[in-house]
Every structure is written in structure tokens, then in C-alpha cells.
């Protein structure tokens, strides 16, 4: 997915807010990210994004009402740090996140998040060169090789809270200056960087996932890739077991351990989101809804329509309004 944006290089700040009832619209609106969101829990979707772009940093706060599976990629030569308001229920690349932990991923590398309902997260994206220079000036020792490969940081609670408060303060300042043509107070970017370095200076990088968990990740990835490559086929659990070369019990355990849901539920949710995404595509406006549903493996239109309404709280035809 091409966001149509170049990496951050603004000479002044840019602040904006987005309110939406569509997961894909929320995904598209985080500047310089490549993202795709699949809604995983049933009910009307509400999303809110507040974003502040500075010359060499991006900070934001995102709120989502439903559980969402996200595939994300940050702009190159950057590092993303994610500070969930509550860590319970979040998974990064399948790994459950404990309360108090911080997520980190390098730019240009795709990763997956599974976030729970009623979720809020603060984010900081920093040019790696800027972060390295600031760390050197502050005598903050960072293992860059391990940081590039890391997914989870164990951070001092007070330092973690200071980062979240710094982001919230910067967003509030950005909102107060929105549309005024003014600039933020001098030192805003420096204050954010100092808070981040304070957290990194007293953090530890969690070791990579155990080999057994990595094997379960590979099983899930193999099934997921097959589902997307054969989306029109009405796949069953035995089909998925044959694809992954595992037993039904092992497949169930892999999906529950990595994604927190059964393979059947995952298959249905991903396909329903695919139909919704295609129905909203202007290029597919003339395609009958039944044909779109069939192209995503739904054999019974009545069952599809019922499942769609339960997940999104609206009929399939509403996606084209």
C-alpha cells in the first residue's frame, strides 16, 4: 500500500485529527505509514487519531473501539516506539504484551499488531540518525543491533509514563496551534527526545521469541498466506490442516497462541474484511455484492449477509453509500 507521502522532512509542525467509523480509513491516515486494518470483534467501529509531525519526529495517539488486526510498516530509517495505555490483550507479531512494556520496530520492516477493543496507544517515530546523535550527546548507551531486531522493551514505569505524558502534551500544544499559522514552543522536539532517551536509558530488550513459538508463528503465517492467495476457495479446517501439515489440535493451538482466536474465526473475519474493503473500492462499484462475496469464498449469500451485519453492524450495501 502506498501512502503517497515522503518521509518526514517538514520545516514546521503539522497537526491534525481524524475521526472515522471505518478501520481502513483510520489505517490510511497515519502519515508515512503503510497499514491495513482488519476489524476482528463485532460492532460499530469508532476510531480517532491525533497526529503531530515535527521536522524529525512524529508523535500520535490512536483510539480504536474494536479489536483490530493491523499489518504495519513505518517509513525507512526510523524507529517506532509504541506505548499502549494498557498493555493487556495486545500482541506484536503474535507475542502477548505485558502491562508496562513498550513495543519497538524499525522502519521499512512489516510487523503485525493485534489490539483489543477499547484500545488506545501513544506512538513516537524518530529518525534513527537523530536518535543516535541525541543518545551520544546524552551518554545513553543503546545496543543498535539488538534494537533493530527488538519487538518488546522492558521499561521503567515512571520513564514510560513520562514518555506518554510528553506525547500527550505535544499533541495538546499542536492542537492549540492548529490553523493559527504559528509554531510550537522552542524545544518541543527536544523535550520529546529527552523523554524517550530517559525511557531507553533504563530499559531492557526482551529476548526474541522461543523456537517453539516461532514454529507456531510459521504455521499461522503459512495458513494466512494460503488463505489470501486462494481467497475464493471455501476452505475448511481440514483443508487448513493439510496446508500446514499439522493436526487439527495443533492448528487450533497455534492460532490461539499466536492470534488469540480459532482458525475458523480468523478465516471468517479476514474474508469479511476483504469483502468490505472491495465493496468500498470505487473500481468495484458495479460488481454485484453477491459476486464480491463469492470471490472471497462465501457460498451462501444469506449466511454471508448475516455474518457481515453481525461483525460491522451494518448491511453489505451500506459499504457503498
From TrEMBL:
One of its GO terms (molecular function) is DNA-binding transcription factor activity. PROSITE patterns: HTH_ARAC_FAMILY_1 (PS00041), HTH_ARAC_FAMILY_2 (PS01124). Residues 221-321 form the HTH araC/xylS-type domain. InterPro entries: AraC_XylS_family_regulators (IPR050204), Homeodomain-like_sf (IPR009057), HTH_AraC (IPR018060), HTH_AraC-typ_CS (IPR018062). Signal peptide: none annotated. The lineage of its organism: Bacteria, Pseudomonadati, Pseudomonadota, Betaproteobacteria, Burkholderiales. This is Helix-turn-helix domain-containing protein. Pfam families: HTH_18. It comes from the Bacteria. Gene3D superfamilies: Homeodomain-like.
